[in-house]
Request: fold
Amino acid sequence: MGLEKDLAPGEHLVTLFRPFLEHLAASNLSPKTIQKHVDNMGVLGGEFIRDLHNDPPLRKRPVDLVLSKMIEYGGPSYATAGKISKDRLIVSGH
Reply:
Protein backbone atom coordinates (compact mmCIF):
# COMPACT_ATOMS: atom_id res chain seq x y z
CA MET A 1 0.00 0.00 0.00
CA GLY A 2 1.01 3.66 -0.07
CA LEU A 3 2.81 5.78 2.44
CA GLU A 4 1.33 8.66 4.43
CA LYS A 5 3.72 11.11 2.72
CA ASP A 6 2.25 10.11 -0.67
CA LEU A 7 -1.29 11.20 0.21
CA ALA A 8 -0.87 14.95 -0.35
CA PRO A 9 0.81 14.69 -3.78
CA GLY A 10 -1.62 11.91 -4.75
CA GLU A 11 -4.61 14.04 -3.82
CA HIS A 12 -3.13 16.94 -5.78
CA LEU A 13 -2.78 14.67 -8.82
CA VAL A 14 -6.43 13.67 -8.53
CA THR A 15 -7.36 17.37 -8.47
CA LEU A 16 -5.29 17.94 -11.62
CA PHE A 17 -6.68 14.85 -13.37
CA ARG A 18 -10.33 15.44 -12.41
CA PRO A 19 -11.26 17.86 -15.27
CA PHE A 20 -9.94 15.41 -17.86
CA LEU A 21 -11.73 12.50 -16.20
CA GLU A 22 -14.99 14.48 -16.08
CA HIS A 23 -14.56 15.30 -19.75
CA LEU A 24 -14.12 11.58 -20.49
CA ALA A 25 -17.23 10.71 -18.51
CA ALA A 26 -19.28 13.24 -20.47
CA SER A 27 -17.87 12.18 -23.85
CA ASN A 28 -19.29 9.84 -26.43
CA LEU A 29 -16.24 7.60 -26.28
CA SER A 30 -16.72 3.89 -25.84
CA PRO A 31 -16.43 2.48 -22.32
CA LYS A 32 -13.33 0.56 -23.44
CA THR A 33 -11.62 3.75 -24.64
CA ILE A 34 -12.55 5.62 -21.47
CA GLN A 35 -11.19 2.75 -19.36
CA LYS A 36 -7.93 2.83 -21.33
CA HIS A 37 -7.52 6.55 -20.55
CA VAL A 38 -8.39 6.00 -16.88
CA ASP A 39 -5.87 3.16 -16.67
CA ASN A 40 -3.20 5.36 -18.24
CA MET A 41 -3.93 8.09 -15.70
CA GLY A 42 -3.46 5.50 -12.95
CA VAL A 43 -0.12 4.46 -14.40
CA LEU A 44 0.97 8.09 -14.68
CA GLY A 45 0.00 8.75 -11.07
CA GLY A 46 1.77 5.62 -9.86
CA GLU A 47 4.94 6.47 -11.74
CA PHE A 48 4.76 10.02 -10.43
CA ILE A 49 4.73 8.73 -6.85
CA ARG A 50 7.53 6.27 -7.67
CA ASP A 51 9.60 9.16 -9.02
CA LEU A 52 9.05 11.02 -5.74
CA HIS A 53 10.53 8.03 -3.92
CA ASN A 54 13.48 7.76 -6.33
CA ASP A 55 14.25 11.49 -6.27
CA PRO A 56 13.21 12.90 -2.84
CA PRO A 57 13.98 16.56 -3.73
CA LEU A 58 10.98 16.40 -6.10
CA ARG A 59 8.71 16.36 -3.03
CA LYS A 60 9.65 20.00 -2.41
CA ARG A 61 8.56 21.06 -5.90
CA PRO A 62 4.99 21.97 -6.89
CA VAL A 63 3.12 18.84 -8.06
CA ASP A 64 1.76 20.52 -11.20
CA LEU A 65 5.25 21.65 -12.24
CA VAL A 66 6.81 18.22 -11.68
CA LEU A 67 3.95 16.57 -13.59
CA SER A 68 4.28 19.07 -16.44
CA LYS A 69 8.04 18.52 -16.68
CA MET A 70 7.55 14.74 -16.48
CA ILE A 71 5.21 14.88 -19.46
CA GLU A 72 7.44 17.35 -21.31
CA TYR A 73 10.38 14.95 -21.04
CA GLY A 74 8.38 12.10 -22.51
CA GLY A 75 6.66 10.55 -19.51
CA PRO A 76 7.49 9.13 -16.13
CA SER A 77 10.78 7.43 -15.32
CA TYR A 78 13.58 7.67 -12.81
CA ALA A 79 15.76 9.36 -15.42
CA THR A 80 13.02 11.92 -16.04
CA ALA A 81 12.73 12.66 -12.34
CA GLY A 82 16.45 13.34 -12.10
CA LYS A 83 16.30 15.73 -15.05
CA ILE A 84 13.32 17.57 -13.54
CA SER A 85 15.10 17.95 -10.22
CA LYS A 86 18.28 19.26 -11.84
CA ASP A 87 16.36 21.73 -14.04
CA ARG A 88 14.44 23.11 -11.08
CA LEU A 89 17.64 23.54 -9.10
CA ILE A 90 19.15 25.51 -11.97
CA VAL A 91 16.04 27.67 -12.41
CA SER A 92 15.68 28.37 -8.70
CA GLY A 93 19.39 29.12 -8.33
CA HIS A 94 20.01 26.42 -5.68
